[in-house]
Amino acid sequence: MVQSAWQEPVLLDPAAAPAPAYGGGSLADLLPTLVAGQEVPGFEAVIPELTPADRNCVFLIDGLGWEQIEAHPDEAPFLHSLLPSSRGGTGRPITAGFPSTTATSLASVGTGLPPGEHGLTGYTVRNPGTGELMNQLRWYPWTQPRTWQPHPTVFRLADAAGVRTAQVSSPDFEQTPLTKVALSGGSFLGRLSGEERMDLAAERLAAGDRSLVYTYYSEVDGKGHRFGIDSDAWRGQLMYVDGLAQRLAEQLPPRSALYVTADHGMIDIPFDEQSRIDFDEDWELRAGVALLGGEGRARHVYAVPGAENDVLTVWREVLGEQFWVASREEAVAAGWFGPRIDERVHGRIGDVVAAACDDVLITASVTEPRESAMVGVHGSLTPVEQFVPLLEVRS
């Protein structure tokens, strides 16, 4: 019997990863385009397919990516019917940005800037000033918000230009640092139920000749993390939010545009050793690593000083067939975080950045027990995580 020759593993090239469409087709481009159409100074319409409206409403559904709507016409008949309207009637999605995670995406939406400029470059990142990991969703440990993210939000600039601006969301989010750095400006109106938010969003939209209203719903993402997007609990939330979107659309005042979008998609990962690689149990991956940041499908790896090249080599050898494994410089050059990186942001990016290509993630069972137990996850550059809708209803 002739034995086949051993073949060198084919490692993924980080330069070939599908970088987000910053500058014309990403979440960061949405609000600048909308307020440019409302004649707010300093902004350009960078998503050319969108037509200006006097009154703009953005309904962001946490965790509801393009592919999830496509795959569930029965559970989301209203949203599914709007797919041809996406991105100005082209029937195409936009991209979330990297990593495709809530804190990063909400900051991109609210500031109109890519992650390399607003600086919220992951779920957890190293604070170069303290050397500690900072959780940018929960804002722990405490860091001065305006120092961490100093750019003004689009909401704030639009409000100063005379656009009637409001955020309608859960009361729990009103005073959070993430809201202050990413979504503040104009009025914050807290309402508990989804129906109340939709009704109030429509009311605030009608309150000005030029208005900008943002509203948000989180539980599609919550059920996906806990039970997965192949669960009855998740499908129930999808059915509910489909009704909310229709409720809002049916109340639009004249001269309005409603845009339904999301911060990322989601993928379920099986609970087996091949799909879930435990960093805390893997001596090879731990060698030379001082801090592990990010999340399972989008890791920032901070090396012990002097060990950066060794860590990159090992991570690429161990994971390079399933992950795009890049040095900081390679990830920046590939445009993962946007075309520009603010100086204060550079050290927040890992010495090594690993983004999942396959259905796999890097858990940390000891240091991240809650995150490691999630069924549905997100964060990487794949279409199921990156592609988000920009569904449109006009009155």
Describe this structure in words.
With 395 residues, the chain is α/β, with parallel strands linked by helices. It has helices spanning 30-37, 66-71, 77-81, 86-89, 102-111, 115-118, 145-148, 154-160, 177-182, 194-205, 219-227, 232-249, 283-286, 308-319, 328-333, 343-346, 369-372, 383-386, and strands at 55-61, 94-95, 124-126, 133-135, 164-169, 187-190, 211-217, 256-261, 267-268, 276-278, 289-295, 298-303, 323-327, 352-356, 361-363, 376-377, 387-388, 391-394. Strand 5, helix 9 and strand 6 form a beta-alpha-beta unit.
Short description:
The protein is 32% helix and 19% strand.
Features:
single chain, 395 residues, alpha/beta, six-stranded mixed sheet, globular
Helices and strands, with pairings:
Layout: H1 30-37, E1 55-61, H2 66-71, H3 77-81, H4 86-89, E2 94-95, H5 102-111, H6 115-118, E3 124-126, E4 133-135, H7 145-148, H8 154-160, E5 164-169, H9 177-182, E6 187-190, H10 194-205, E7 211-217, H11 219-227, H12 232-249, E8 256-261, E9 267-268, E10 276-278, H13 283-286, E11 289-295, E12 298-303, H14 308-319, E13 323-327, H15 328-333, H16 343-346, E14 352-356, E15 361-363, H17 369-372, E16 376-377, H18 383-386, E17 387-388, E18 391-394
Parallel strand pairs: 1-7, 1-8, 5-6, 5-7, 10-15
Antiparallel strand pairs: 2-17, 3-4, 8-18, 9-16, 11-12, 12-14, 13-14
Helix pairs in contact: 10-12, 11-12
Spatial ordering of strands, largest sheet: 6-5-7-1-8-18
Number of helices: 18
Task: Tell me the Rg in angstroms.
Answer: 21 Å
State the major sheet. Answer: 6 strands, mixed
**Arithmetic mean pLDDT:** 97
Q: What kind of oligomer do you see?
A: single chain
Give the class from helix and strand content and strand pairing.
Answer: alpha/beta
Distance between the termini: 72 Å
Strand proportion = 15-25%
What percentage of residues falls in helices of 4 or more residues? 25-40%
Number of strands: 18
Query: How does the overall form come out from the CA principal axes?
Result: globular
